[in-house]
Design a protein that fits this description.
This protein has about 220 residues and is an alpha/beta fold. The protein has one domain: 3-Layer(aba) Sandwich (Rossmann fold), CATH 3.40.50. Helix content is about 20%, strand content about 25%. The protein has 5 helices and 9 strands, in the order αββαβαβαββαβββ. The protein has a 7-stranded mixed β-sheet. β8 and β9 form a beta hairpin. α1 packs across α3. The longest helix is centred in the middle third of the chain and has 13 residues. The chain binds S-adenosyl-L-homocysteine.
């Protein structure tokens, strides 16, 4: 463990599962309250999802930590995030992908469907000195101009791995996403690409809002397991 990893964050004692010192250090570095409406800031330290407007929620911190740990982001990795929402997860990714020379977030690409959420996320990120690439759009289409990505994280549930995201995952890359058809029957998947083939590790039950995209209505747009 590094010294940094011992820095406290609100949930430090509640998370024995989160053993990666870099992930723990990232949670110590990013204040969650900065991503909440001021009226909800007093709940920021609860390990629970909270409303962020537009019918969406900021994810439970533990779920963000679990997904981030599975993603194994290294400094300099190109990372794609779908469903940036509040921007909290984006900030964690900026911490982990940062290198000594680049602005924090230079290799992080985040997509959010709701313009109002993207705008608030961009402001919160900038206020903390993070500079990821953030755009409004359909994340299921990925960000082809910036592909391939070493890591892809999706914060909304889809019936399967969207093919565009699979195509934009680098060889040896990792993708973490909730998969499921029903709201109460979702599983977190860690997907790896090895010699072009999909390897899936199931990480347990979760509950996410749906990934909304016409791409997913067509099963031909689901990548093959
Ligand atoms: N990690 C975020 C999670 C927000 S909830 C946080 O903790 O704040 C999931 C987000 O996915 C919502 O903001 C929703 O608007 C967004 N979303 C849903 N479908 C999307 C799509 N096709 N492309 C991009 N974002 C999408």
């Amino acid at each position: 463990m590094t010294g940094q990893a011992n820095k406290p964050f609100p949930w430090a004692d509640q998370w024995p599962e989160i053993v990666d010192p870099r992930v723990r250090a990232a949670f110590a570095a990013v204040p969650r309250r900065a991503f909440l409406d001021p009226n909800l800031a007093r709940f920021a330290d609860q390990d629970a999802p909270l409303p962020i407007g537009e019918g969406q929620t900021i994810s439970q911190p533990f779920v963000v930590a679990l997904m981030t740990q599975a993603l194994q982001v290294q400094p300099g990795d190109k990372v794609l995030e779908i469903g940036a929402g509040s921007g909290f997860q984006t900030a964690i990714l900026c911490e982990l992908a940062a290198t000594a020379d680049d602005a924090r977030g230079a290799t992080v690409y985040a997509i959010e469907r709701h313009p109002a959420l993207a705008e608030r996320a961009a402001a919160a990120l900038a206020s903390l000195g993070y500079a990821p690439h953030l755009r409004v759009g359909d994340g299921a289409l990925g960000w082809p101009e910036a592909a391939p990505f070493a890591a892809i994280i999706v914060a909304a549930v889809a019936p399967h791995v969207p093919r565009p995201l699979w195509d934009q995952l680098a060889e040896g890359g990792r993708m973490v996403l909730p998969v499921g058809v029903q709201e109460d029957d979702q599983e977190l998947w860690l997907v790896r690409k090895f010699e072009g083939k999909m390897q899936v590790e199931r990480l347990g039950g979760v509950r996410f809002v749906p990934l909304i995209s016409p791409v997913l209505d067509d099963p031909k747009q689901w990548a093959e397991e």
